[in-house]
Design goal:
This protein is mainly α. The protein contains nine helices and no strands. It has helices spanning 18-35, 41-51, 56-87, 92-120, 145-167, 175-194, 198-224, 233-273, 280-309.
Length: 350
Amino acid sequence: MAGTAAAPAAGPEPMPSYAQLVRRGWGSALAAARDCGDCGWGLARRGLAEHAHLAPPELLLLALGALGWTALRAAATARLFRPLAKRCRLQPRDAAKMPESAWKFLFYLGAWSYSAYLLFGTDYPFFHDPPSVFYDWKPGMAVPRDISAAYLLQGSFYGHSIYATLYMDAWRKDSVVMLVHHVVTLVLIVSSYAFRYHNVGVLVLFLHDISDVQLEFTKLNIYFKFRGGTHHRLHALAADLGCVSFSVSWFWFRLYWFPLKVLYATWHCSLRSVPDIPFYFFFNSLLLALTLMNLYWFLYIVAFAAKVLTGQMRELSDVREYDSVVETPSSKSSKDEKPLRNGLVKDKNF
């Protein structure tokens, strides 16, 4: 059985800098690779047999949960979101997309609130002391019920999201990356539960869901600001503030806290607590892929902000479709061009 380490008496370890993350994480990974005399498929099979704990009823419950989310979304869209869009007289393109954002906003708000409760409303020290996610780790250890509930909700939702991206959501320029993101996230959720890395999972979910809450909040206000054929300043202001908050939180939670808390704990601190921790490279590769996707989307955000700041966009549109352009008077073509609505030209996906 893998050896474990108890919590140090000195208290939580200070959060590292980016340089310390790279230096210590890379050093730990190289040392692990050098010390691994048998890192082939045989070791992987033995690791699965010895350390993976996932019962068939749990997989069945996950699949049923995914079906349940899909049915619930379809019912909410037909009975709540579409009638609301019709009652508010949203523009046709906004009315078509509002149900997707409303559904995601409600889920992510609830999911993030629950993750925040686990990290700040209980005795779990994972946020303030990320290395503690591996203290007293044992293969096959029991998963607390409150964390199991978070895993069931999130895992089943991302199973639903793979189907939803293909068949229910509006297709956007980054939908392929979004699909890859959902697959990677689902694999991380299921495998981290099976290998009992659930403490890390709670921290990862908390650091990611807040950005989705703000993204969908911003999009909803964009859709509602032209309801009833008139411009509503309150929704426009909320959309502007939401966009700023979303951009800041994306960097702070996903590109600052996520690498310096989660990656530092998994790449470096995990080997100090559990020297022969199973599937070290597998999990860290998935977390690194998640980091790269976060960076990819951050480039979208920067490009979107640049267009707003340089005057290429006078109004906020869907922040996942940042390349919509505002047509200036000098660029208007001639007689066969249709009149602009509110001075905006949006791409075909919006």
